Amino acid sequence: MANKIEIISASLVPMATNANPISKLDPTPWDLLFLLLQPIQNGILFHKPESQELQISLINHLKNSLSRTLDFFPPLAGRFSTVKNDDNTTSYFIDCNNAGVEFTHAVAGDVSISDILEPKYIPEIVPSLFPLNGVRNYEGVSKPLLGVQITELVDGLFIACTMNHAVADGTSFWHFFNSWSEISRGLDKISKPPVFERWFPDNVPKDNPLIPLPPLELNWLQNIVPPPLLERVFHFSKESVAKLKAKANSEAGTTKISSLQALSAHLWRSVTRCRYEKSTDNLCGQEVNFVLIVGTVGSSPSSWAYVGLGPSPVGHLLQELNRQQQQQRIDSLQKRKNERGQQQKQKKKNVRQFSFQLCAVFINSADRGPFVVRFC
Fold first, then answer.
1. Which Enzyme Commission number(s) are on file for it (predicted)?
2. Spatial contact of 108 and 125, defined as CB atoms under 8 Å apart
3. How many other CB atoms are there within 10 angstroms of residue 314's CB atom?
4. Given Cys at both, which of 46, 51, 160, 289 links 130, Cβ 3.0 to 4.6 Å?
């Protein structure tokens, strides 16, 4: 396998109508955390059309449908913009200026689908199937926030997307991809329009939510050289996860261990054994770190609709916590109100009982005609 990619064409694709409903969007504090990180990259393999004419027609169709899809996702066709503040800080926002997304048509004439899927480890050519390689999220000031690359293989097509991670999360990524699929199939509108409403902490002004950031520490990025590690994708079937869960619960003598907990524990033990040459006897009492990134997108009915420009996963969580705290405060106030009401009722009741006792004593002690006692 020659591992050679030939770029046929590259262009910027704008929105089809430029009927932009929004002009700018302000990132949340959690979006800004991703500025120094790399973008999201995912791709899908497809069978190759039978003729060259169909291939060219398909690529043009994908390019046109991408443009129409951007009408529903204007921030993805924009760029990051910055505001220099007087205190040497910088604020970022998304300028929905329709600068366009990168669209690349490439050919890998010596690569087949089996060359990508069959190897034990991810082949070295796979990164070259994606656009905007090596671009950090903060570079969205001058680089596209979204890139698409269609690569012709010997017997297939690889459609790859690179999306700025400070703009969208994984759920939003696939929301866009599925929406593009709908427009490509001939629909005029997408089934689930994105929601661009933002959630900010209470201490961020609603009328000007720009968040000042100190100068980005870019020097340390240049000093980071990742080791030449091989990458591999693991797939755990439903049956294997069920076995892990049953084994974990059996060994612990419980039924409360979840599938995620059982799988996480299995990964932790496997990674730890690999790090320490399959022997963990000398690790007793030592701290062993293992980081596992798990999606935490909220389970609210509208969580699918956020294009990273709604609350991030952490934002969803904090929003829910904030909602719970507000509800707790409301419940606490209502409880105190009810308690005060009960206390006032009890006081009135005590006064009535006391008055009744006095009247009763007076009636019984006075050897006179009957009294009529009224309570208001």
1. 2.3.1.133
2. yes
3. 17
4. 160
Tens-place pLDDT, residues 154-183: 999 999 999 999 999 888 999 999 999 999
Q: Which residues contact 146 (CB under 8 A, 6 or more apart)?
A: 76, 77, 101, 102, 161, 162, 163, 164, 176
Q: DSSP of 261-319, one letter per residue?
A: HHHHHHHHHHHHHHHTTT--GGGTT--------------STTGGGB-SSS--HHHHHHH
| pLDDT (tens digit per residue) in 256-282 | 999 999 998 898 888 888 877 655 566
pLDDT at 96: 94
Got the DSSP string for 90-129? EEEEEE-----EEEEEEE-TT--HHHHHSSSS--TTGGGG
Helix (H) or strand (E) holding 162: strand 156-163
Contact predicate 59/150, CB 8 Å: yes
Mean pLDDT of 213-225: 74
**Between the CA atoms of 166, 169, 175 and 176, what dihedral angle is there, to the nearest 10 degrees?**
30
Tokens of 14: 């704008």
Q: Of 104, 269, 77, which Cα lies nearest the Cα of 168?
A: 77
The CA-based dihedral angle spanning residues 17, 64, 144, 161, taken in that order and rounded to the nearest 10 degrees: 140
The owner of tokens 């054994």 is 273
Backbone phi and psi for residue 111, each to the nearest 5 degrees, phi listed first: -110, 130
* Burial class, 141, CB count within 10 angstroms (exposed 0-12 / middle 13-18 / buried 19+): exposed
Q: What is the pLDDT of residue 305?
A: 42
Q: Compare 52 and 143 and report the one with higher pLDDT.
A: 143
What domains can you pick out in the chain, each with its CATH number?
6-223 (3.30.559.10), 234-279 (no CATH)
- Whether the full predicted model's pTM is greater than 0.90, yes or no, is no
